[in-house]
Design goal:
Elements (H helix, E strand, L loop, with lengths): L11 H52 L9 H8 L9 E6 L5 E5 L11 E8 L6 E6 L13
Antiparallel strand pairs: 1-2, 2-3, 3-4
Length: about 150
Amino acid sequence: MLIRKRERGFTLIELLIVIAIIGILAAIAIPMYRTQTIKAKLTEVTNAMSNVASGVAAFYQENNSFPAVQGTIAAIQSTLGVSLGALTRVGSMNVAANGVITATVSRIDANTVDGRTLILIPSTSALDGSIAWDWSGGATMPAAFIPKR
């Protein structure tokens, strides 16, 4: 009587199922990775805007009015006394007379956020003069890239 040894290995169907699962995972993971990469690069812009917001708040507390700074980032730095360093992902930034800070994003992702604006809007409390800030993207920035707080 002959005893046959069972051959070991994977069948073609098992290999195809594994390849299909890897393909599905890649189809989900790659767009999520791209979105998170863009959000990480946007932190330079949001941090710079937060620094400017601190300067605007200090100006408001001292003068009871918001500064209006149009033009270059250097003008914002000298007017508000904030240090922004070398910003590579901010194309331009302005502070309106109502305290609204607008920054144009550049050199992050040409198809998604470059050339679009992030907006930081102040609202003052009549009770104690404190300022609360709200993020917006206007009509241009995709909602996924607007900071929550």
